[in-house]
Amino acid sequence: MSLAASLSSKWINVSEPHPHVLHVELHRTPVNAFSSELWADYGALMDRITHEGRDVRALVLSSALPKVFTAGIDIADLGAGPPAADNARKSLATHTHLKEFQHAIGSPERCPFPVIAAVHGLVIGLGIDIISACDIRLAAEGTQFTIKEVDVGLAADIGTLAYLPKISGNESLMRELAYTARMFSAEEALRLGLLSNVVAGGREGVVRAALDLAAVIAQKSPVAVSGTKRILTHSRDHSVAQNLEYTAAWNAGALQTADIPESLRAAKARSQPVFAPLRKSKL
């Protein structure tokens, strides 16, 4: 059975282009605007892949639409919310809604495998939140980005302002972009530190590059890659001393893996190692 079996939904296509690699494509025409239904489905998909124990070792996220990654949140959803008897109850309902939204868009960080964003065209508002939660970000030449939220009267609240200061090595530029909502190019996003590479060839080129990268990662030990992701994420949010202690505790168990002798055997035999799934499938 394909790893992608039964995962596609109304606005999300899922395929398995390489062994242990999933390709998730957003396709809500005309511009991949995120309604509440779409972002809920997106978060549920990422968590479902992990919960079901599918042997996924890398995932590529892209848009199926030719000219846009996403135009951001569906404007029809702005200001929408459950009716409330008073302002205090409305505030509590809004807080719950925002936390659910954040949880969904932050789902790539919870995946035990790397998630690679391959973007092209326009990446607006919520699009920055989405890709900031991914491990690796590639963009096609000509991609245009904007942290759009200040133009609609709010501070970005789903992840951009939490992730970007951790991602960027240029806080001055990051703040300029967040305060002004101006468009910035793929080259400027590369300078910001948001991207690891800018790829020629438009949508097809960047998706191909991301899938090739995912295929390389998928050949590595899933124990090693998953542990590396967990330790890097912990390092981002903790001191060096705390991370070294965490790493020692983590590897005290992880070093018992059969992936180490298998890697050594394959290197000696000059063959491709064969690794067991990270967890038992529930399918």
TrEMBL record:
Coiled-coil stretches: none
UniProt keyword Kinase present: no
SUPFAM superfamilies: ClpP/crotonase
InterPro entries: ClpP/crotonase-like_dom_sf (IPR029045), Ech1-like (IPR045002), Enoyl-CoA_hydra/iso (IPR001753), Enoyl-CoA_hydra_C (IPR014748)
UniProt keywords, alphabetically: Fatty acid metabolism, Isomerase, Lipid metabolism
Single GO MF annotation: delta(3,5)-delta(2,4)-dienoyl-CoA isomerase activity
GO biological process: fatty acid metabolic process
GO cellular component, one term: mitochondrion
Pathway: Lipid metabolism; fatty acid beta-oxidation
Cited Pfam families: ECH_1 (PF00378)
PANTHER family: DELTA(3,5)-DELTA(2,4)-DIENOYL-COA ISOMERASE, MITOCHONDRIAL, ENOYL-COA HYDRATASE
Family statement drawn from the similarity comment of this UniProt entry: Belongs to the enoyl-CoA hydratase/isomerase family.
Name of the protein described by the UniProt record: Delta-2 dienoyl-CoA isomerase
Species: Favolaschia claudopus
